Amino acid sequence: MKYIYMDHAATTPVDPKVMAAMTEFFDKKYGNPGSIHKIGQEAKTALNDSRNKIAKFLGVKENEIIFTSGGTESDNIALKGIAFANNDKGKHIITSKIEHHAVLHPCEWLEKHGFSVTYLSVDKHGLVNPKDVDNAIRKDTILVSIMHANNEIGTIEPIEEISKICKRHGVYFHTDAVQTFGHIPIDIKNIDLLSVSAHKLYGPKGVGLLFVRDGVKIEPVLHGGGQENGMRSGTENIAGIVGFAKAVELAKDNIKSEMKRLTALRDKLIRGVLQIPDCWLNGHPEKRLPGNANFSFKYIEGESLVLYLDMNGIAASTGSACSTKSLKPSHVLSAIGLSHEEAHGSLRLALGRHNTDEDVDYVLKVLPGIVSNLRKMSPLGK
Fold first, then answer.
1. Do residues 307 and 263 share a domain?
2. Which of 250, 271, 300 corresponds to the end of one domain?
3. Checking CA distances to 22, which of 161, 184, 336, 365 falls within 20 to 30 Å?
4. Which helix (H) or strand (E) holds 342?
5. Which active-site residues does the annotation give?
């Protein structure tokens, strides 16, 4: 039985070309870039070349790219680093109720350390209203952090407008772009800090970056040997960074065509799934990631749906892979107004580079029967 992977929002397979680019940095060019001998300098050259490639793709300076272990570390450096470097100006931060836990949990931690956080509500589609950001900014506001697109429901936020508001007020703006980098265009012009993770882009796990614009006042979270301009101490993951750069290179060559292809597949999937009774789409109907389709089904639990899909050769999820062990309903689905029961009946299908029309056809063939059978077994079923 063919296995169909539709959980690309959780992670992506490493592209074979990425694997090939990384290999020699494990067993041949394995040096520490801080060493002055030949093998060390080979690693340093690879590090510099990778930084240059990614900086050009993003349209920023090389020194503004800080390599990290991934999106979670990048978010933590951004929030905590800005908070402690600017607490003489103020201790107020603004974010939204639908952010990834890599933003929400650092905010909660900062609240325990003397900072105040405003958590903005969203509309039924998961959109943050820029006017709410404008109204929430105070004299002591130092940072606004709004994700570029939501990892669960796929809604793309109006960060261009929000970043302009922040610039007008003289407040730093950070965006978690883990779901969008390399998948849709990013206008970096008014963004001060931006978080990225390689494994959402057919690169390796354990590597990411934080863009920090020149002049931004920020403190390091990790202290040690002073790597990455003193912002992220620790020997750089050269193989991972090289793979990251290769993944970016591959995305750059195909971003427009892949957006068009995935949008067509996504829309076909959405049309088909919505033929199932008592089912609806979560997230914005138009302003959403090309590969994201998130649904809710009445009378069943999403976990059961995912397990039965898996038994039929389809990998899917109920939402964020970082919170699947929790029995609590998704904070994102709760924020857009779903009840406890409705939020538990969610299914996220996240399409990617290797998905085809035939994959979508197979899901549309299998899913209705699974939903019907689960509803027959459910005490909530009609």
1. yes
2. 250
3. 184
4. helix 340-344
5. 322
